[in-house]
Amino acid sequence: MNIILLGPPGAGKGTQAKRLEQERGMVQLSTGDMLRAAVKAGTPTGIQAKAVMDAGELVSDAIVSGIIGERLDMEDTLKGAIFDGYPRTAAQAESLDVLLSERGRQLDFVIELEVNEDALVERVEGRFTCANCGEGYHDKFKLPKVEGTCDVCGHHEFKRRPDDNAETVRTRMAEYRAKTAPILPFYEAKGLVKKVDGMADIAEVGAQIDAILDGKA
Ligand code: ADP
Ligand code: ADP
Ligand code: ZN
């Protein structure tokens, strides 16, 4: 099964993708994570992407479709791909169709996380992740069970993203509205879109997604 999780920054895409990895053995393909890894490694792609990401704008379609294509050639993605943060433009949506069909694969669902934008700044500003395994947390909505210790791997260091500040989030939301939301009709025409209430708590959003994947919604 191959699915897209679609929603603005802070909608809960990464949280749900990580859960699906843990519970269903699917594989999260987050272009944001891949780009941050490229920035950290100082690759040519990373050097090009850094300033754009810090500003909250979109990296070029050619770069992101290139890294997704490479990732899809790795065998683990046959267990089921969860596209998180990709596609983000009409051109990327068209590229993804080609990348999948070239490999004899197809999309099963596009799951739209419906959220109230006003709540997202708080979600993004309170976000942090385990510096070792990447598990996501929140200052208010999802604290580690034991303070200062990652639930998943027991690590004690956490990190925050430089672009998770109120000002950059506003730019990222505007990018979502202008360039990403308009790809929904493309998928609606294919009958692939399923909506979930992204304002519900994390477990409830998970239950709604599970119902879709299990063919019960
Ligand atoms: P995205 O990948 O869509 O940008 P995340 O999954 O990283 O979003 O979630 C953003 C922040 O909000 C994280 O700190 C996460 O723990 C928290 N979060 C995710 N889903 C919910 C939810 N349904 N209710 C409250 N907080 C949430
Ligand atoms: P969030 O889910 O919080 O919006 P991401 O981790 O998905 O954050 O993305 C962080 C940044 O990486 C984006 O603001 C953008 O600069 C860049 N980026 C990630 N995915 C894409 C993509 N598919 N197309 C263009 N830029 C991207
Ligand atoms: Zn961890």
From TrEMBL:
Gene3D superfamilies linked to this entry: P-loop containing nucleotide triphosphate hydrolases
InterPro entries reported for this sequence: Adenyl_kin_sub, Adenylat/UMP-CMP_kin, Adenylat_kinase_CS, Adenylate_kinase_lid-dom, P-loop_NTPase
Binding-site residues for AMP, renumbered to this chain: T31, R36, E57, L58, V59, G85, Y86, P87, R88, Q92, R161, R172
Catalytic activity annotation: AMP + ATP = 2 ADP
Region of interest called NMP, as start-end residue ranges on this chain: 30-59
All residue ranges annotated as the Adenylate kinase active site lid domain in the record: 127-163
SUPFAM superfamilies: P-loop containing nucleoside triphosphate hydrolases
Chain residues that bind ATP: G10, A11, G12, K13, G14, T15, R127, A200
Keywords, alphabetical: ATP-binding, Cytoplasm, Kinase, Metal-binding, Nucleotide biosynthesis, Nucleotide-binding, Transferase, Zinc
Binding site for Zn(2+): C130, C133, C150, C153
Localisation per UniProt entry: Cytoplasm
UniProt cross-references to HAMAP family, sorted A to Z: Adenylate_kinase_Adk
Domain text: Consists of three domains, a large central CORE domain and two small peripheral domains, NMPbind and LID, which undergo movements during catalysis. The LID domain closes over the site of phosphoryl transfer upon ATP binding. Assembling and dissambling the active center during each catalytic cycle provides an effective means to prevent ATP hydrolysis. Some bacteria have evolved a zinc-coordinating structure that stabilizes the LID domain.
NCBIfam families (UniProt xref): adk, PRK00279.1-2, PRK00279.1-3, PRK14527.1, PRK14532.1
Subunit-level organization: Monomer.
Protein name: Adenylate kinase
UniProt gene name: adk
